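# step 3/5: fold
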Amino acid sequence: MTSTQIIVPCFNEADRLDVDAFRRWAADHPVVGFLFVDDGSTDGTRAVLEALQQARPEQFRVLIQARNQGKAEAVRSGMLQLIDEGDAQIVGFWDADLATPLDAIDDFLAVLTKDPQIEMAIGARVRLLGRAIERNPARHYVGRVAATVVSNMLGLAVYDTQCGAKLFRVTPRLRDLFKEPFVTRWVFDVEILARWLLSRSAAERDQVEERIVEVALMSWRDVAGSRLTPADFARTPIDLWLIYWHYGRALRRR
């Protein structure tokens, strides 16, 4: 069993999944494995994933969801399986469209390996000189507003909650972050942070910047065929209210 396992949630990715990119990268990184979660796809995704698994079963595995339940549940199911298996030291999830290139995994692992106190490494799409961050302007500005709301809600100065690249150190408390279903389908990344904060004592919450690190990505790009729709963006304020109702009030009382 590889020491790092990464979930790749997939829904109707038969024509988009860059199989060759996964194969090449995995061949050069034998200590990293992937669990592809087929979230009830209705195209040929399952066949594509099973062919990947047959070609390299020591690094590629497949978890089939009987019906489509959304990215949040696909990630949650995969994380619970990896944590319960008890073999991996680091687990996480990565978007199937490779908007964040696989090469960035090395940067995330370097952060977690360098400092054993760090429990979570999350991608941040910061457009700086020398970095190739290509984001749809409308999505970028919506994301900045949402990030500001989230930062105030959680009392956590986080720049980018929604990047689909996150790795976690396996600790005795990690399972609690995924134990219960999320209340949102797309903004569940915020829920992960809220659950992490709620699992900590006041003293531990003061050490949050020693435990969670945002990794500024060298490159990121919007990939055609995104599963996010205008309706999903329109629902963001409702989802953020749901998160506040479930977690924000409890955080403010502590």
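# step 4/5: annotate
Residues 4-253 form a domain with the Spore Coat Polysaccharide Biosynthesis Protein SpsA; Chain A fold (CATH 3.90.550.10).
# step 5/5: archive (pending)
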